[in-house]
Each structure stands twice: as structure tokens, then as C-alpha cells.
Request: fold
Amino acid sequence: MISTSPQQPRRYHVPIHTKRSRRQRRYSPCELAPGVNARGLGGTSLGDLGVIRSKTLLRCASLTVAIAPAVRKWASAAGGIHLIDLRDLDEIESGASHTCGLRGLTVHRFTLKDPATPRPLARDRDLDYFRREYATMLLPAQHIAAYAVSLLATTDLPVAITCQLGKDRTGVVVMALQHLLGVPHEQIIDEFDRTAQWFADHPEWVNRYACLRSEDPVAVRQRVMLPRQIGEQAAARLLSETPAVDPATRFRALRRVSSSMVIR
Reply:
């Protein structure tokens, strides 16, 4: 079983060789590459605290040859980046890692799933399966989100959250993180729903992903187009939980990511 206590991530660090001022790191212009499942959370409402600053939080699929350049832009502009990697060990070992050129990259590895549990085929992953899967991921996702808050409180670098597809595991952790930061409920659901909409707008990407994994494209397309109610149910459970994060740490993280709080 997955432990309910916070995990200690395995990390590695690629050192940077350039120094930039805090202002340069925070506001250097960079745009995400079009046509890849990678987007920033900048502009997301924080209620009375304004919105999340651009180029502070990123969610994406694993660092494929298409996505790595988008993340590299963030890392180059900021002088480095923290990557919270939610992939299983088998996914890491079987997938190509395109981290070349990502200087200042620090990887924090976590897992939301029990590696001893066999993974069903794509065609067997129906709505009930994902309801159970999301319910299982909620508790470890809260611990990982609390870790992300502590990371935001202690670094000036962007933080990216990734898994294999950039949808389910990433989506649940991003929901938990947004909840800890005080993002309104409806905004949390809308952000979760944006990924399914992205896949609907990019069927060719889904087909390439299915081919890479030797899966049926139709089954994969059905899997990534989960109804909005899955996210609503997961978010409702998250909202019923008390945020498990130190108030002082949360304040420092909000001071880092909020557009309205003064950064000192």
C-alpha cells in the first residue's frame, strides 16, 4: 500500500552556470510552445489575493522531445526549474528523458500509485475505474501538494508538475495544490477540465501517444476525455479536508506566487 505519510522525494540537480537577479528570473519573457500539453497556471484567481503570477507554476506531460523545449524556455528565463515528477519507475525506465539543456533542473520524484497493483488495459479503464483511482490518489496528492507549497515558499524558481500524460495524476496534484493556495472551487474544476478540452482539440497528439504505448487510440481517447463530474467529485472531497500545511509556509508561498502580495 502507498504510505499515507509525506514521501521524501528522490532528487537530482543539474547545476546552473549563470546568475540572474530576482527580477530577471521572475519577469523574463517566455512563452509555451504551441501544440504541446504544457501550460502555466498564471492568471488563476487567488480570491482577494489577486491571481497566480505568470511563470511560477507549470503543468505538463512527461518531458518528451516535443515538451522539453517548452519547459526549457521557463528554465532558461528563470535560471532553473523544479520538476515534480509523478511517473512510476517503469514509466521512467521505459520512456525517453529529454532533459538535455535543462540547466538548473532539480527533479523531485513521487508516486501516487501502489507499484504492486497491476495496471488494467486502456480498454478496461471505464468511468467507475477512474472514480476509484481518483479516490485512491487524493491522500498522497495532498501530501505532494503540501510539499509543493513548501517548495514555492523557499525558491524563486518555477515549479513544474508532470506525469506521463499530464492529465490524471498531474490533474489531482494540481487540484490539491490550488486548494492549498486558496483558488476558488469553480476555478479548480475549470483548470482540471481544460486538459480534457486540450486533448479534444489535439487528436493527433492522442494518436501519437497511443502508438508510442502500443494502445488502441479509441480507448486512449475515451480515457483522456473523462467527464467533468470526475474532477468535481475529486475537488469536492479535497474541499472537505483541512489544508495540511503550516500557515507560515503557506503565507511565504502565496507571497511568492500572488500578483497582489508584496515580495521582499
In short: The chain has ten helices and six strands. The first helix runs from residue 22 to 27.
